């Protein structure tokens, strides 16, 4: 794949999510959504999976923008694309930042016992965890959770809990101050979003768009029409 002629955003959604979470972004540059691939096996590692996902990423300078679990894949892909810069949205910069509750889940092996459809069964818990505020946000969140492949979810949760983040590249962090699912706590955040929860890619899309356009050094007029996602 040849190097792009301008700044390109490769957008990676969160666990089980798809391009719907990016529909409110207004990016004044080319944007491509990397769609999830089915795991080849239950034991497929994150580096192996990232190598397959990286096939859709150009070899030249670009932006890898990952949301939640997508941020972890962005960091893994960046190992293979040294000219890429990573932006993490509502995500983790290293395995050390995994919340204490999830560390206990890993130690006790509870992720093998809990059904991956748990949030489908408890939609109001999902609403609280993701801070989906309006009816439209809650409706979108329920659709995404409903459409999540349980096989992929179980694989992704296991990979998240056993992620080896040693040697991942540096990243720019955008994180909400009220993220209940993956709170930043003491992690350094470059762009804190006041009041933003884990679903802020939707609820605070305007602020995030502004930051991404600023990072890319875009010189287009603010009134320019955003490029469609492909």
Automatic annotation (TrEMBL):
Keyword match Methyltransferase: no
InterPro entries, alphabetized: AB_hydrolase_1, AB_hydrolase_fold
Domain of life (superkingdom): Bacteria
Gene3D superfamilies the UniProt entry points to: alpha/beta hydrolase
Parts of the chain that traverse the membrane: 53-75
Keywords assigned by UniProt, alphabetized: Membrane, Transmembrane, Transmembrane helix
Pfam families linked to this entry: Abhydrolase_6
Domain AB hydrolase-1: 41-205
Cleavable signal peptide: none
Presence of the UniProt keyword Transmembrane helix in the record: yes
Name under which the protein is recorded: AB hydrolase-1 domain-containing protein
């Amino acid at each position: 794949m040849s190097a792009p002629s301008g700044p390109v955003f490769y957008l990676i959604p969160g666990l089980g999510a798809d391009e719907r979470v990016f529909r409110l972004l207004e990016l004044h540059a080319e944007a491509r959504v990397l769609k999830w691939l089915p795991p080849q096996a239950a034991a497929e590692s994150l580096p192996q999976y990232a190598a397959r996902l990286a096939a859709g990423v150009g070899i030249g300078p670009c932006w890898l923008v990952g949301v939640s679990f997508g941020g972890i894949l962005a960091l893994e892909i960046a190992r293979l694309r040294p000219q890429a810069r990573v932006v993490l949205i509502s995500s983790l910069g290293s395995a050390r930042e995994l919340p204490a509750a999830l560390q206990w889940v890993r130690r006790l092996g509870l992720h093998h016992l809990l059904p991956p459809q748990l949030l489908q069964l408890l939609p109001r818990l999902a609403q609280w965890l993701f801070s989906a505020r309006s009816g439209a946000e809650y409706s979108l969140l329920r659709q995404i959770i409903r459409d999540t492949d349980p096989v992929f979810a179980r694989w992704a949760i296991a990979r998240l809990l056993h992620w080896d983040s040693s040697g991942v590249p540096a990243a720019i962090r955008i994180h909400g101050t009220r993220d209940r699912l993956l709170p930043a706590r003491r992690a350094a955040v470059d762009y804190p979003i006041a009041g933003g929860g884990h679903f802020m890619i939707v609820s605070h899309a305007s602020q995030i768009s502004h930051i991404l356009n600023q990072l890319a050094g875009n010189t287009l007029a603010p009134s320019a029409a955003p490029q469609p996602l492909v």
